User: Fold this.
Amino acid sequence: PGPAVGGAVARLFATFEATGSAAACVKAFNTAGLTFPWRRRAGPRKTPRGLTCQIGLVRGCLRWRRVRAC
Assistant:
């Protein structure tokens, strides 16, 4: 993974180690306004009409969003 993804994962583990709870990790990330990487698992395999992953509709594209649940 890239450095941004690696940093987010490292922060997740550090937060979990500090809090001891997955729910507390979610709360800490959201309180700090942090986002976490995710990949879309559904949708087309190719970009429609040459659009890039920036729109987030294509399966496998990396996106960043708030942590919703643990």
